[in-house]
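Proteins fold. Shown next:

***
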Amino acid sequence: MRKVLLIEDDKDVLENTATILEFANYEVATAENGKIGISKAKAFMPDIIVSDIMMPEMDGYAVLETLHQDPNTASIPFIFLTAKSERKDMRTAMSLGADDYLIKPFEEQDLLQALDIRLRKNDFLRLQFSKSLGGINTFFKEASEYFGMELLSKNHKTRKFQTGEEIYREADPANFLHFIQKGNVKTFKMTECGKELITGMHGKGDFIGQLSLLNHSGTYLETATVLEDTEILCIPKQDFTTLVYGNKAVSNKFLDLISNDLIHVQEQLIDMAFSSVKRRAAKALLDLHEKGLMENLDQSGLDIPREDFAAIIGTATETAIRALSEFKQMGYVGVGTKKRLVLLDIRGLKQVAEFG
């Protein structure tokens, strides 16, 4: 049973509204003014609060501000139920963080619908979705259930790609968002002189193609090629568009899920500009290891062309090879089976990455 705290100084309105909520199968606690309401909120810990604005002791605005300052009550959905009907009052309420604003006299159905919408939204926002096939499918299911969004393809399926195969090519129509369920992927653009400019190395749990789907040209901005046998979950553009533009709460959750690590990208750009080649190389190796694209000596290692590694750290191939050779002499990296690069001393590489 969901819990509602009702704060209202008019005794008749308080009792009538409480009765409506109880008949709708809510557990209701009541408070006759804002000061008592704050105490009740902290003791009762309701799932949602419905409050008047004009009250003795403390008005509804002050109640909302006070509860938002307490981490234990800050995330509780808050609805104003008031006779104040001017637009400036509504703007004040919403600017303080209210979730909804109902004007007295109100229809019973309007109140119950407002409660249902805000509770479903709050439930959805509290959910955590893992970056896995199960997590992505759960997100689609929950988004559909909580917000009534009809997704065009409810059962998203995976495609398998072999080593060296292209997932998509630059300038092709951008029809899918791709989620890497298994394997490793390289994305790159071709320069005017015909050289590859690597835009990213991606592994399990990463999304690719997001910016292309948001781009007005309607085409992929880069080429994606698999580095080893890979499984990809393909999400149609129609579903992507529905999730991004259909509902603000869903959009924020979805964009957070598919954004990957943009802060890390920013750090890479700063390193490209100011760090030494050796330090950039160490950071790149550690980053590939953290992404699961490169393992230690007991695992399979990484089979990456030296020119690709050079592109990642923004230097000439010969310079990148010299850095790797130096790491090999220091015992930080080695060559495993099938001549794959493996890490031997992660701690040593971390020292180089931190201090240069």
